[in-house]
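Document type: protein sequence-to-structure record

Subject area: structural biology

Format: plain text, a pair of labelled lines:
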Amino acid sequence: MNVRMLRLHAKAVATLLAGCLIAMFSPATATATAPSTATAVPVPDSPVAEAGNPFVDGWYADPDITVYDGTYWVYPTTSKTYAEQTYLDAFSSTDMVNWTKHEKVLTTEDVEWAEYAVWAPAPVERNGKYYLFFAANDIQNDSSLGGIGVAVADRPEGPYSDALGHPLIGQFHNGAQPIDQDVFIDDDGQAYMYYGGWGHANVVKLNDDMTSLGTFADGSTYKEITPVADYVEGSQMFKRDGMYYLMWSEGGWTGPDYSVSYAMSDSPTGPFEKIEEVLAQDPAVAKGSGHNSVVNVPGTDIWYIVYHRRPLSESAGNNRQLAHDPMHFRADGTIEPVTMRVRDNFADGNSLGWKTYGGSWSAGDGSYRAESSPGGKALLDTDFADFTYDADVTVPTGSSGILGASGGDAGLIFRAARPAVGVDSYAGYYAGIGPTGKVVLGRADDGAWTPLESAQLPLPTRPDHHLRISAVGSTIKVYVDDMATPAISVTDDTYRGGANGVRVFNTAAAFDNVSVDKAG
């Protein structure tokens, strides 16, 4: 959902969503960071992003999010080679946690002039019709056929059909390649489209029919609003508290430096001057984070940024995934830099982002479960050095429990590399707990196991435990249930960074509420 749809549906959406969503939120206060020294506004956090990223399966990019009649809709680019980018999928959700896929809502078969490189859909509803603006053919000059088109449908899921039979914008103006469009409807009902690649951004007015361009007071149709020399593509506009926010992407889309910056203005046409970068790669979480949209939960001041990013272990340009994270504002209206959080409470019923090595794993009923195996493990594509790693771990204490027979131990892997199928086939640390309350910490080295320390919890013990790993430099602390006093504390500097994961050893187990945060 972006702000343009809030204007059209605020009353309906607030009635349907605000009450149930607000009830789920818990307060959190962010801390102001440079360049502003303003005190941060307390903003409630939603459990939406706690279900993990990516939030849908598959390679996708350039997401735009909106809300139609109480349902969130995300329309992304299909992240494949140009020749394979011949269709657009959509995803819908009533809670931004559980998503339904709608395949091929628009294809090149529906648009006679579009052949490939169908990019960056921008959804909007007006007068009972659903419009989907898109770019196609990646034109390189004015003699090529392609540019920005518009499709229309009677339902959000389509099918969409070409509204014009030709591009709405099919040539370069002010140096802007006609791609990466975003549509915004202001409070007065005026619709604008922001677009442009090749380092130039334009804004145009859309007439009420949403299929033709208007003019500005000076008689011009295309107004350049390029904010800085670093602008590359991916314009996004939203409005909050009377201020207009223009966001855009910088860097190369295939590289790790792809990022998002923003500007503010009291006018939808600017001028716009860069304030700061707000979303960038995190070498511990993901790279190539960019081309975003923004969602505001109706009736609240809760905001999310929706974007694409590339997993750390992926190098192919098109291997991109959709993610969302909370977006907070300072008291002066500026945006705090976004933290790409590592969270998974498995409320969405899937284990997207996890890769397994041996054992049998399944996600459902709000947890991630493993059947008993001699060393089955599942890892996230992370690379943390100093961190705090939390998770709930349940191990059966008897042979008739829902998890199966007791025995062995289950717990957390960290600072791991070279994972493979096998009991200790990885290089990293493991901290686990068994059904009798014995806590173990050890080090694996591609098949070899070195115990570091163990501890016994007071008996009787229970099957469910909260484990926390604090790793700062060579100091490793393992907390179990009691977060004030570590059960184990050792010094070991064999491994100083790597992936986070979960593991079982001759026991079944369930894992929940996984989170990893940088130390400090």
